[in-house]
Design brief:
Blueprint: H1 2-5, H2 19-36, H3 49-70, E1 79-83, E2 103-109, E3 125-132, E4 135-137, E5 144-146, H4 149-170, E6 177-183, E7 186-192, E8 197-199, E9 203-204, H5 208-223, E10 235-240, E11 243-253, E12 259-268, E13 285-288, E14 300-303, H6 320-325, E15 331-332, E16 341-345, E17 352-356, E18 363-364, H7 384-388, H8 396-412
Parallel strand pairs: 3-6
Antiparallel strand pairs: 1-2, 2-3, 4-5, 6-7, 7-8, 7-9, 10-11, 11-12, 13-14, 15-18, 16-17
Helix pairs in contact: 2-3
Length: about 425
């Protein structure tokens, strides 16, 4: 494997590897060989699940050691992928869920030591790893039963989906996430996007070709750009004397809805809106300030907006920035609900202010209004016309009916979400 990793013609000559480093690599190789050499004369059976966890960790460490030796001066943005160091089947320290993870991969800076990570968090997880053994072995090893491999793989995927939601909830700068299933010697890489899950074919690490593919996957994930690992480069988390906080780099928006050319940096102590689900727009919102010293008294709100849409469901061009610039008079939101209204109480004078967000269903309206036969919105808050998906013209009444409904419900139940003119 080391020979395969070092085969690039562009790699400069390397200094001889120290004997202690060679001994460490040999020890790691012996650790993962029971897994990668399964179904051979030396190791006719797959190891039990706990041994698979340790073998997976040893293989990851082996690749990271070789990679640092081969690439002494990486490009900016390169990283190491390291594992949880204290066994397996653990609960992240920032989790309120009962589910436990078999193993995780965590991104660390290139100059970090190649060693396992203690006390990983969902906030640090790059990829969750779920391992299953197709051959079920009794506790004393006296009986064995082969399970349905497809059902085992499906269960592993389902568990990854649950973990993936928690990664989105804790990491406000993820566009998509990764996961790995390990079923005996077969590994699959899964990419969780906002609207679908992509899965690789089986990568059999018990074969030379399979090991080459898996090692190549780890190497490419370490040496690629942040965006290819699923991170939003303009949203980053920091930890220093000010504690943990986020920086958001974005363009200011003029009153006409145009972006200013220069990017500005804003500071936030955390997201007011988190993406706590697997699929959807993954809309996030940050109370921000322009000075780090004022981070506890935010005066602005930064929203991670969806991209420009060439044509919406009704056939018109749409851009959220253009919609926001016309919000006062000539648009229909079409998805007013409790999820799309943010209410913030000012820390300065206690006044309450509300803002309508998530304009991905909005449409422009004008003198010549067309019928809108498609069905849009959140089911409990849809107007009668939207529920029926009929051809009658949509008007401001469709939006105002829902707004008034929310106001009455809040007052009737004693809620404080829409008070002090927040809906104005």
């Amino acid at each position: 494997m080391e020979q395969a990793l070092s085969s690039s013609e562009s790699t400069p000559p390397r200094a001889p590897v120290a004997s202690d480093a060679t001994g460490k690599l040999n020890k790691l190789a012996a650790g993962f060989r029971k897994w990668t050499s399964a179904r051979t004369e030396d190791f006719p059976r797959m190891p039990v699940e706990k041994q698979m966890y340790s073998a997976f960790r040893d293989l990851v460490l082996f690749v990271m050691h070789c990679l640092k030796d081969i690439v002494p001066e990486p490009l900016e943005g390169c990283c190491l992928l390291l594992h949880y160091s204290e066994g397996s089947n653990f609960k992240p320290v920032d989790s309120n869920e009962s589910d436990k993870l078999d193993q995780v991969l965590v991104v660390r800076a290139w100059d970090s030591s190649v060693a396992g990570v203690a006390q990983p968090k969902h906030a640090d997880t790059f990829a969750a790893v779920e391992a299953k053994r197709v051959e079920k072995v009794s506790f004393d090893g006296s009986s064995r039963a082969v399970r349905d491999g497809g059902a085992v793989l499906q269960k592993a995927r389902q568990q990854l989906v649950r973990y993936n939601r928690l990664v989105y909830e804790h990491q406000h700068n993820r566009m998509f996430t990764w996961g790995l299933t390990v079923c005996d010697s077969f590994v699959r890489a899964c990419l969780f996007g906002p609207d679908r899950v992509l899965s690789s074919e089986d990568i059999d690490v018990a074969t030379p070709d399979g090991r080459r593919v898996f090692v190549g996957l780890l190497v490419n994930l370490c040496l690629c750009e942040e965006s290819r690992r699923g991170y939003i480069p303009t949203i980053q988390q920091h930890e220093d004397a000010y504690g943990r906080y986020w920086t958001i780099r974005c363009n200011r928006i003029s009153s006409s809805g145009e972006q200013e050319p220069e990017m500005a940096t804003f500071y936030s102590s955390g997201a007011a809106m988190a993406a706590d689900r697997n699929f959807g727009q993954h809309t996030r919102g940050f109370p921000t300030t322009e000075r780090l010293e004022d981070i506890d008294s935010p005066t602005l709100f930064a929203k991670v907006a969806w991209h420009y849409v060439e044509r919406g469901a009704a056939g018109e061009h749409r851009s959220e920035l253009q919609h926001l610039s016309r919000i006062r008079k000539d648009m229909l939101h079409r998805d007013i609900s409790t999820n799309n209204i943010l209410v913030v109480r000012s820390p300065l004078d206690g006044t309450v202010h509300g803002v309508l967000v998530n304009f991905d269903c909005a449409i422009s309206v004008g003198v010549d209004r067309k019928a809108r036969p498609e069905r849009n919105g959140t089911l409990p808050f849809m107007s009668v016309l939207n529920l029926e998906a009929n051809w009658r013209e949509r008007t401001e009444l469709d939006d105002w009916r829902i707004a008034y409904q929310l106001e009455v419900e809040a007052r009737a139940t004693g809620g404080s979400a829409f008070v002090d003119g927040a809906m104005a």
